[in-house]
Amino acid sequence: MAYSARIGPSILSSDLSCLGSECVRMMECGADYLHLDVMDGHFVPNLTFGHPMVECLRKSVGRDPFFDMHMMVSRPEQWVKPMAAAGANQYTFHIEATTNPGNLIKEIRESGMKVGLAIKPGTTVEELAPWANQIDMALVMTVEPGFGGQKFMEDMMPKVSWLRSQFPSLDIEVDGGVGPDTIHKCAEAGANMIVSGSAVISSDDPRSVIALLRTVVAEAIQKRSLDR
């Protein structure tokens, strides 16, 4: 099994007036990567930030942090080249936002980024499946995308379990309402990339929360490898 436990704080939950230092703080607290939510006010009702801010962040934090871009946008094709130029490492787009996922996957690869493919709660995992062997990561949303602070949807876990059983080495990410109270369900289902917003960033001790999340996931991965 090639996948490992990785924790990515969702920086949209941080103090946006000092985003650069917040990113550095998260990395110093043991984050494996940073999850950046791009919303266009169209695909989802909220509006966040675009590639100019990503470029500034990359200059501010240096080359090391892995930027996982969660592109909640209506025309994901439009932003591939700008995000690559800005310093993004992974481009995670929504299958619901494109009519040609294959072509978009190819464009992202050719721009030098990794490929993530996301599904909303209302989208079946079978719609993602045909592309699973062409992507680096599948993102199963555990809330409706567009707003932070929503309640974790446990009924999304069968999607994660199914993906893990069908594609044993795929990176599987969960995003939405994930924290110490819900991590066990995610880990048992087979998720290995954990996006956590307020549970990490608003904590008095982000380092220990990140460590807890990683330990739970790592133990589940180890158990799965022993059970095989």
UniProtKB/TrEMBL annotation:
In this protein, the active site sits at: D37 (proton acceptor), D175 (proton donor)
Q: Which GO terms of the molecular function aspect are on file?
A: D-ribulose-phosphate 3-epimerase activity; metal ion binding
Keyword terms of this UniProt record:
Carbohydrate metabolism, Cobalt, Iron, Isomerase, Manganese, Metal-binding, Zinc
Reactions it catalyzes = D-ribulose 5-phosphate = D-xylulose 5-phosphate
Supply the Pfam families for this chain.
Ribul_P_3_epim
Q: What is its EC number?
A: 5.1.3.1
**UniProt-annotated binding residues for a divalent metal cation:** H35, D37, H70, D175
- What InterPro entries does the record tag this protein with? Aldolase_TIM, Ribul_P_3_epim, Ribul_P_3_epim-like, RibuloseP-bd_barrel
Report if keyword Thylakoid is assigned.
no
The note on cofactor binding and number reads:
Binds 1 divalent metal cation per subunit.
Name what cofactor the protein needs: Mn(2+); Zn(2+); Co(2+); Fe(2+)
Biological process terms from the Gene Ontology for this record are: carbohydrate metabolic process; cilium assembly; pentose-phosphate shunt
Known PROSITE patterns for this protein? RIBUL_P_3_EPIMER_1, RIBUL_P_3_EPIMER_2
Residues reported in the UniProt entry to bind substrate: S10, H70, G146, F147, G148, G149, G177, G197, S198
Free-text function comment from the UniProt entry: Catalyzes the reversible epimerization of D-ribulose 5-phosphate to D-xylulose 5-phosphate.
Similarity-based family: Belongs to the ribulose-phosphate 3-epimerase family.
List, alphabetically, the PANTHER family matched: RIBULOSE-5-PHOSPHATE-3-EPIMERASE (PTHR11749)
- State whether it acts alone or in a complex, and with which partners, per the record: Homodimer.
Q: What is this protein called?
A: Ribulose-phosphate 3-epimerase
The organism named in the record is Betta splendens (Siamese fighting fish)
Tell me the classification of the organism that encodes this protein. Answer: Eukaryota, Metazoa, Chordata, Craniata, Vertebrata
